[in-house]
Amino acid sequence: MQRYFTDATLTVGAHATLNSTVEHHAVTVLRMQVDDQLEVADAQGHAFVTTITKTAPLTVRVERPIPQSHELPVAVTIVCGISKGQKAELIVQKATELGVRQVIFVNTQWATARWLPDRAAKKVARLQQVAQSAAEQSHRDRVPQVSFVPLLDAVLHMEADAKVVAYEESAKAGEHAQLIQTLRQQPRSLIAVFGPEGGLAPAEVSNLNDVGFVNVGLGPRILRTETAPWYLLAAISTYTELQEEQSDRVNS
Amino acid sequence: MQRYFTDATLTVGAHATLNSTVEHHAVTVLRMQVDDQLEVADAQGHAFVTTITKTAPLTVRVERPIPQSHELPVAVTIVCGISKGQKAELIVQKATELGVRQVIFVNTQWATARWLPDRAAKKVARLQQVAQSAAEQSHRDRVPQVSFVPLLDAVLHMEADAKVVAYEESAKAGEHAQLIQTLRQQPRSLIAVFGPEGGLAPAEVSNLNDVGFVNVGLGPRILRTETAPWYLLAAISTYTELQEEQSDRVNS
């Protein structure tokens, strides 16, 4: 069933009007009609099955909650050095499918591309749309938030249960244990920093380490700047969503 | 250090001449000179540090083996339904970074795109180049093999220790345990089938199930056709490369 998002908070039995972008997609593109059903996830990250009662403006009756969560049990923030070309869109789209909660782009010392603050707002708005589309398509319960900070310093004091930095030199040195050790602590939130194509400067890694970011290796192969966050998200899903189910079965 | 591949089998102390594509990249693009070092992985999947002794034709002296393997401990074959546009290139590039051993593209019933056998050879040759570049960049010890088969039937009787199919309906039904159960058997080879955008037809899944392919869910979010094989490869890496290191440490 098609899934959309609303900024409202939904309750079963009530009606809700969806915004014009959703109306255009559902009514004009997909030609949905009165009595057709669609899923709507609300501002609280709760999803419901709804029935269309009116198409202009698009209005739905909230039928029943969808109990199964589609959210990673760890709220993951990825912080990505700016890359050239269309990589930011690809990072956001795939990271959304893989369950990311927040994506922050940041200018770093060794990056070969840089966003100017006055043009970043437009880029972020475009990337937020990419996140929204990918969240609908992958049946997320929340749309990840995309933002930009001009300096890595802004990331140093963000709060999270676990903080890691994907440092290529750690991977090359054969570091394979730290990510799992971090996940064993059952963090409810995790922030992970990824360098751009040129990597992070040693001074940047050192600054991150000083405030508690731990270097993690992501397997023995050298991953491109966009692949590394996807690997991390898939690894967290594997550890928390596939294994947990597994231990449930073993215990039952 | 830059990594290249050779079809030869290398031995320490011997000299080897690399092919003209490698010569162009190393000498013309990167401006490497006599006495510069580069890594070369040979036909056996063994990698060595080498020193350039001549630039035309590019000739190296084999100095020493690189003991650390960059290959997934499970030889993974992914079989992908044909998708529209440039997705095949993206699938091959990222799957190579994530450790795939073989990528097979196949026409399926519900696909919205189809490769004609007479044009497939050219596509496969191009994709093989993508695999080679990605293997160099990610420091693989082997270049994954790319191929095309016109019918899914050709896949039914391929040999592998484990055979899975990523079936969207299984994921929707909340199947979260099967992949880990499969990996617990410590397969040395695994073949995984992924549908195109339209998904696999139930009859196709049924045919796969009949010959021992097991339906696996890849977490609660709905992944696009290109994202699903990346998730699988990252999950296998997490289970075999991150966890194994972990248990080594626990035991030592």
Layout of strands and helices, then pairs:
Two copies of one chain form a homodimer.
Chain A: E1 3-5, E2 15-17, H1 20-29, E3 37-41, E4 47-55, E5 58-65, E6 75-81, H2 87-97, E7 102-106, H3 117-137, E8 145-149, H4 153-156, E9 162-166, H5 168-172, H6 178-184, E10 189-194, H7 202-210, E11 214-216, H8 227-251
Parallel strand pairs in A: 1-3, 6-7, 6-10, 7-8, 9-10, 9-11
Antiparallel strand pairs in A: 2-5, 3-4, 4-5
Helix pairs in contact in A: 2-3
Question: C-alpha Rg of chain A, in Å?
Answer: 20 Å
How confident overall, as mean pLDDT of chain A?
93
What does the largest sheet of chain A look like? 6 strands, parallel
CATH architecture of the largest domain in chain A: 3-Layer(aba) Sandwich
| Element order of chain A: H for helix, E for strand | EEHEEEEHEHEHEHHEHEH
CATH class assignment of the largest domain in chain A? Alpha Beta
Number of strands of chain A: 11
The named CATH superfamily of the largest domain in chain A: SPOUT methyltransferase, trefoil knot domain
Structural class of the helix and strand makeup of chain A?
alpha/beta
| Overall helicity of chain A | 25-40%
* Percent range for β-strand residues of chain A: 15-25%
Biggest sheet strand order of chain A reads 8-7-6-10-9-11
Shape of chain A: elongated
- Helix segment count of chain A? 8
Features:
five-stranded mixed beta sheet, disordered C terminus, homodimer, Ribosomal Protein L25, Chain P, alpha/beta, 2 domains, Alpha/beta knot, six-stranded parallel beta sheet, 252 residues
In short, what is this structure?
The structure is a homodimer of 252-residue chains. The first copy, chain A, is 37% helix and 23% strand.
